[in-house]
Automatic annotation (TrEMBL):
Entry-linked InterPro entries: DUF6088 (IPR045738)
The protein's name in its UniProt record: Type IV toxin-antitoxin system AbiEi family antitoxin domain-containing protein
Pfam hit, one: DUF6088
C-alpha cells in the first residue's frame, strides 16, 4: 500500500473537528511524501488546512456548514507538536471569568517556545515567549487560566469580587490547586482574604 493510501486510511479514522499535525504521519513516509498526500486530501475536500502543518476532518453543521476547531485547540496541538507549554493570555482569561468584557482582537498566548505569529484560518494569533514558569503553571487547565486572569488584573485591581468570580468558575478542587500554586504575595493574600471572608460569611 502506498504512503498516500496509508495516510488516507488513518485520516478517515480520525475524529471530525479534531485538529492534527503532519508530524503524526512521519513514521509512514518522508516529509515530502506526507505533505504531498495531505495536500491531495485537502484538494479532494477530505480534510481542511487550518494552519501551517495543521489539518482537520471537517465537521459539518446544517446551519453553518463546516465547523472549524477552536483556536485554542489548534494552538494546543501546535504546542504539543513543538514540545512547548502554552497558556492563555490574561486579557482572554479575564474575559472568560467575566472580569472583563473586552474582546482581544488578536488572540495572545504565553509560550515556553519562541515568540511568533501563526495564522489559524483568517485569524492572526500571537505567541509571546515567557521565561516565567509561574505564568505557565497548570497550562491548559482552569487553575492556570485563573492565574493568568489574576496577573492581568494586577495588584491594584484584585478585590474580593474578582476572586469571587474566579471562585465561581472553578470547582472546589480547582480552587484548592489555585491556592497552592506559586504566585506573588499580593495574589496569595487576595485569595486568602477572600477565603477567610467566605468562611466567616
Amino acid at each position: 500500500m502506498s504512503v498516500a493510501e496509508r495516510i488516507k486510511q488513518r485520516v478517515l479514522r480520525m475524529q471530525r473537528g479534531e485538529p492534527f499535525t503532519n508530524t503524526r504521519f512521519l513514521k509512514l513516509g518522508s516529509r515530502s511524501a506526507v505533505d504531498k498526500a495531505l495536500s491531495r486530501l485537502v484538494e479532494k475536500g477530505v480534510i481542511q488546512r487550518v494552519a501551517r502543518g495543521v489539518f482537520v476532518r471537517p465537521k459539518k453543521s446544517r446551519f453553518i456548514g463546516n465547523v472549524m476547531p477552536e483556536v485554542s485547540r489548534v494552538i494546543e496541538v501546535i504546542a504539543k507538536d513543538h514540545g512547548e507549554t502554552v497558556q492563555v493570555h490574561g486579557a482572554e482569561a479575564a474575559r472568560r471569568f467575566k472580569l472583563s468584557t473586552q474582546m482581544p482582537t488578536t488572540p495572545v498566548y504565553y509560550t515556553s517556545g519562541p515568540s511568533r505569529e501563526i495564522r489559524v484560518g483568517n485569524l492572526k494569533v500571537k505567541l509571546m515567549h515567557t521565561t516565567s514558569h509561574r505564568r505557565l503553571q497548570h497550562a491548559g487547565k482552569k487553575p492556570g487560566l485563573a492565574l493568568s486572569a489574576l496577573w492581568y488584573l494586577g495588584k491594584d485591581n484584585i478585590d474580593a469580587e474578582a476572586v469571587r468570580r474566579i471562585r465561581e468558575g472553578l470547582s472546589t478542587e480547582e480552587f484548592e490547586t489555585l491556592r497552592t500554586s506559586k504566585m506573588p504575595a499580593w495574589m496569595a493574600s487576595a485569595i486568602e482574604n477572600y477565603t477567610q471572608g467566605a468562611a466567616h460569611g
